[in-house]
Design brief:
Length: 365
């Protein structure tokens, strides 16, 4: 008990003042309880109980096991992995192609440019057919290269695009929060849903479709000027490229065109894929909002009462009602509830059905 800081301070005896008595020459205690006025108590003030443990002492308690850190976003890690693996992937493909040029068929412009162009077209799964492997060894290399590239594009580079979009969204949200108190309603309220902390899904779809039009437009202009195609063929090849269809009747044949394709195809195919993903998210979000609206506005029935009465006590508490509605909306599932209940049971050591401060302190000792 003496090791407890907040108990040892209260257990010390209080020293009372003494003076020398002129008549007896021995110290005598002065009973000045009546002379010392206690501090006046004002109504409305809260006074801390003397037996309550100090919060500072509670914070100083070290748990038995270290607390699990909060999961962090893996976007920065994905960025580093993407650039490293992309460089390694392209360097390996360029090296293999450059040393085996005779085993590939197609129009040649420059060894390095052709190798880079072939790697990008293969990685993006477009497959124009203008450069193809001829020997069994190069065909095996192409199979492995396209499989690795397909997974690489889907996992890592999609993470890069998501990271860039999230960074831009966070910058917009931060600017709106700063200027929210300085100005009233503005057009930005249509751009960002501040309450939910994200851009509105309709705006995301609009921006994604705008990116698709921009990628197709840039590709059309460059194909018209670099590949000397007419406007119809330029639009045709641009759309077939960004959608990774690649019929093969049209392809990039010039050196400047293949240099442009190496960068443009890598960016545009990812942007278009993300745009169609936003379209799917918009449909799912609309369906969720419709279900949530129906759940919140419908009348509760006897079957609902029986289903929501977890404790089987004949009535629904507020917590039971919230859990039941969240399950109806699809926000949580029975498995999630069971996991939370299991964690609560581990903390509730005496099976009292509630957590108290002494229990938490006991678990940390």
């Amino acid at each position: 008990m003496e090791n407890e800081p907040f108990l040892s301070l209260q257990s010390k005896p209080q020293l009372r003042p003494t003076v020398e008595d002129d008549h007896h020459g021995t110290p005598s205690e002065i009973q000045d309880n009546s002379q010392i006025q206690p501090p006046s108590k004002k109504h409305g003030y809260l006074h801390r109980c003397k037996t309550a443990p100090a919060m500072a002492v509670m914070r100083d308690r070290k748990p038995k096991t270290p607390q699990l850190p909060k999961p962090k976003s893996e976007s920065s890690t994905i960025i580093r992995q993407a650039f490293f693996l992309l460089s390694l992937y392209l360097l390996l493909g360029v090296a293999i192609y450059s040393f085996n040029r005779d085993e590939f068929s197609g129009i040649e412009t420059h060894p390095v440019v052709d190798a880079f162009y072939f790697c990008i077209v293969t990685m993006c799964t477009i497959g124009y057919g203008d450069i193809t492997p001829l020997t069994p060894a190069t065909k095996i290399f192409a199979c492995v290269f396209v499989l690795v590239g397909f997974g690489f594009i889907d996992i890592l580079l999609s993470g890069v695009v998501s990271y860039v979009l999230e960074l831009q969204e966070n910058m917009i949200l931060t600017g709106i929060h700063i200027k929210k108190s300085q100005q009233g309603f503005s057009a930005r309220n249509y751009i960002v849903d501040v309450d939910k902390g994200r851009m509105r899904i309709r705006l995301k779809v609009g921006l994604a479709l705008g990116v698709v039009v921009l990628c197709v437009g840039i590709g059309t202009l460059m194909l018209y000027f670099l590949e000397n195609l007419d406007w119809i063929d330029s639009v045709y090849l641009s759309v077939m490229s960004v959608t990774t269809v690649g019929y093969g009747d049209r392809a990039f044949k010039t050196l400047p065109g293949r240099l442009f394709a190496g960068v443009w195809l890598l960016i545009s195919t990812l942007a278009v894929a993300r745009a169609f993903l936003y379209l799917a998210e918009a449909r799912v979000d609309k369906r969720h909002r419709r279900i949530a609206k129906w759940v919140l506005h419908r009348d509760i029935t006897i079957q609902d009462l029986l289903a929501a009465d977890i404790n089987n006590d004949g009535f629904i508490s507020k917590s039971e009602y919230v859990i039941y509605k969240l399950k109806e909306m699809g926000k949580i599932g029975e498995k999630d509830i069971l996991q939370i209940c299991d964690q609560f049971s581990k903390l509730d050591t005496n099976n009292s059905g509630k957590l108290t401060l002494p229990q938490l302190l006991e678990n940390r000792l």
